[in-house]
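Hello,

Following up on my earlier ticket. Below are the two sequence lines again, exactly as submitted.
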Amino acid sequence: DTGVSQDPRHKITKRGQNVTFRCDPISEHNRLYWYRQTLGQGPEFLTYFQNEAQLEKSRLLSDRFSAERPKGSFSTLEIQRTEQGDSAMYLCASSFGQGVIKNIQYFGAGTRLSVL
Amino acid sequence: AQRVTQPEKLLSVFKGAPVELKCNYSYSGSPELFWYVQYSRQRLQLLLRHISRESIKGFTADLNKGETSFHLKKPFAQEEDSAMYYCALRPNAGGTSYGKLTFGQGTILTVHP
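Thanks for your patience. The regenerated structure is below:
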């Protein structure tokens, strides 16, 4: 499968624990996005990377959330001290873009987080 | 700020009937509009984008800037069209949006045999 890959697919954790998700984008894509989707809602933007630089973060991304893309390839999203409200599907998307050229975003299957 | 509204949470039609999924948006600049679809147990995938002006799987959508709408239409629905449909917007110009998508809440389409 050469699409966007996310790991794990499901994560169950207890409140207060830390969790980390991984996203592997399509190999030639320089842009990577994280979105969060709660039940009955459309995906909401969390953060964006161009290569290794994190260029935009949503106000939804509290200080308990941190994302990295250390070598401009895969990305990780960490949530510290998880809360029940963090329960959601976390989606990763990637695209290739240069300057004002913004191509199609391809989505991964997502990581479903359940905080007990 | 941009906003996308899909007024119908659920839409049911019979096979062969026409279907229209509504999408309205608010954005002060020049938008690019998309329809994404998610079939059961599959990932979110692009169905069509307005700049392509093409028909995919029999679906079409026209951007109406006057009414700020981007409704998705198909003249004869098929059972395999049953899915969740999301309308999405991103700014078309440069600026600092970096291409992030703003999604509507989605419409679940069910096509009955």
